[in-house]
User: Fold Lytic murein transglycosylase from Bradyrhizobium brasilense.
Amino acid sequence: MIRGWQVATSALAIVVMVATLGAEANAAQCGNGPGGFEAWKQQFSGEASAKGIGATAIAALMQTHYASATIAADRGQRSFGLSLEQFMAKRGSATIVARGRSLKQSQAALFASIQQRYGVPPGPLIAIWGMESGFGSQRGNQNMLSSIATLAYDCRRPEFFTDQLYAALKLVDRGTLSGSTRGSMHGEIGQTQFMPKNVLAYGTGNLDVAANALSSTANFLRAHGWRAGAGYQPGEPNFAAIEAWNAAGVYQKAIAIMGRQIDGQ
Assistant:
């Protein structure tokens, strides 16, 4: 026998399911090529407006273009499949370490200040700085918002990049970024290549300024469990914070090794 409350509960569940399906049906639909991008932008802009994104950011979103170069780069990330030795050679680890040791000395006061505040020593920060942008020399020249909007539209990883797009739009609304901000292929910006969600959460100023980018990176690492004085090699307590920075195993190990060499350990 089905009791009255069971009928009511079942009816409520059906209403919720139908509403959910309706919301999914009305959500901006992903695509695998440029053909649907303009229609997607129209749909997404309506959703973004309903969630409180302002007119300035919506206007910037509507000016974005489908970034074919970003899609090609997203499909071709072959270096993360290399062995650790191959990866480090390809990324120029010896050069990063040599330059990093020099920067550690010439900017000793900056790194001492960062370590005092966040507990992160110079080595891993400098290794990330060198790996991500060649110490600020290669910050990318793609339209940041177009790159992220394209990846949010693309069916490969729309959930991850939709979150990034909302963060980018909030930053545009705040005036921190603009529709003309330039970045790398996946929308990373600044000297240590922050994604928009991380700019919102951990950014400490203009990330095109090295001191701000390095402080923001240390802030990220501390927020992900970095403990002052603990080791950061694989198996040591702080390695997990490096893992949080980048998901690729060869990248994580390369940062740990270069950081140790820069720190003279």
